[in-house]
Amino acid sequence: MSESHENLERLYELDIWPQNPESPIVKKRYSKAISDFKNLINHEWFQEILRRKNSIRILEICSGTGLGGIALAKVLKESGKKVELILSDVREKALSIGEKWGSDELGEKIRVVNINALLIHKLRIKSDIVLMYGFSSPHFNPWEFTKLLASISETLEDDGILILEETDRVYSILFKVGYKDVVIERLDDKAIISLHSSYDPIKGTFERAYINLINPSTPVKISTYFWNIAELMTLIWLFFQDIDYIPYDKNKSSGIIIAYNPRRKIKPIDLEYEPKVLKEIKE
Question: For a tag site, which of 136, 170, 213, 246 has the least CB within 10 Å?
Answer without folding.
Answer: 213
